[in-house]
Amino acid sequence: MRLRLFFALALCVLLLPSCAPKIKIFAAPTTEPLKEFVVEGTGEGKLALIHLQGMLVSQPKEGLLRPTPSQVQELVSALRLAEEDEAVKGVVLAVDSPGGTVTASDILYHEITAFKQRTGKKVVVVMFDVAASGGYYASLPADWIVAHPTTITGSVGVIFMRPKLSGLMGKIGVDVEVSKSGRDKDMGSPFRPTTPEETALFQDIIDDYATRFVNLVQQHRKLSSANLELVGTARVFTANQALKVGLIDQIGYIQDGFAKARQLAGLPKDSQVVAYRRDTYPDDNPYNPMTSADPEKMNLLGVDADMLLPPKAGFYYIWQGAAR
């Protein structure tokens, strides 16, 4: 009996993080504001360099001692500084993300679009290793998209992920009893198989989100019918392939992104590139994606913990092949 209970609890901890008890050690919150640091250039006028990386979520991430800001919070804070500074004429958004939740991706898209509408400032996206699914979704408002020669992008689609425990629970003799108010109240439950009717309902939701994604791609990229159909398969593309189908505008490096942003914004070639950080970094440069050196923000084993743990049940604009 004890062995069965142990396995049941272990399953809950590993597959259902929301079920696991959370132990927190409270510490004073980080209150250092974002400050401007020049990472390139000495001339007049500015470009703001903002990094968007990792799995995109709207909720703060749990740290060992305190939560850390989500990508949505950090991007909105940086855009606000870029908006308030009249010397900033454009933004270079460095994207390295396989995507994330549907809602976080859509909020990022909305905030970048609203920033452009309010300010008239140009936005250039530079893609690094991966800018797929939600990472590409958030890039759509850009006036110009540059991908590194080795970038993987695309994955224009939706996936619904949820853990399933019913088979293993049956083997160890654990069950969950549910009382509900309506037939579909527990649809998607991890404790029982999904019915054919529920599968159809989930597919309708997936199709709805996918249609929104594909329509936004067409709105911003104006693809041919054949290329739009190919993109709609949700496959990923190399930079060369993405250029051919029209998902990006240029293959190059971050310096090419700076050059294009300066051109679009009417800035001189030696205008400054600034980043917003909470800490000073010696020998800072445009490839530094961090806003803070706080060890609290360092990830276990040097990888994104969100990509290691089983995902929370939900709908995602994400390419699972980029999990690392």
Automatic annotation (TrEMBL):
<comment type="similarity">
    <text>Belongs to the peptidase S49 family.</text>
</comment>
<dbReference type="InterPro" id="IPR047272">
    <property type="entry name" value="S49_SppA_C"/>
</dbReference>
<keyword id="KW-0645">Protease</keyword>
<dbReference type="InterPro" id="IPR029045">
    <property type="entry name" value="ClpP/crotonase-like_dom_sf"/>
</dbReference>
<keyword id="KW-0378">Hydrolase</keyword>
<keyword id="KW-0732">Signal</keyword>
<feature type="signal peptide">
    <location>
        <begin position="1"/>
        <end position="20"/>
    </location>
</feature>
<dbReference type="Pfam" id="PF01343">
    <property type="entry name" value="Peptidase_S49"/>
</dbReference>
<dbReference type="InterPro" id="IPR004635">
    <property type="entry name" value="Pept_S49_SppA"/>
</dbReference>
<protein>
    <submittedName>
        <fullName>Signal peptide peptidase SppA</fullName>
    </submittedName>
</protein>
<keyword id="KW-0720">Serine protease</keyword>
<dbReference type="GO" id="GO:0008236">
    <property type="term" value="F:serine-type peptidase activity"/>
</dbReference>
<dbReference type="GO" id="GO:0006508">
    <property type="term" value="P:proteolysis"/>
</dbReference>
<dbReference type="InterPro" id="IPR002142">
    <property type="entry name" value="Peptidase_S49"/>
</dbReference>
<feature type="domain" description="Peptidase S49">
    <location>
        <begin position="117"/>
        <end position="267"/>
    </location>
</feature>
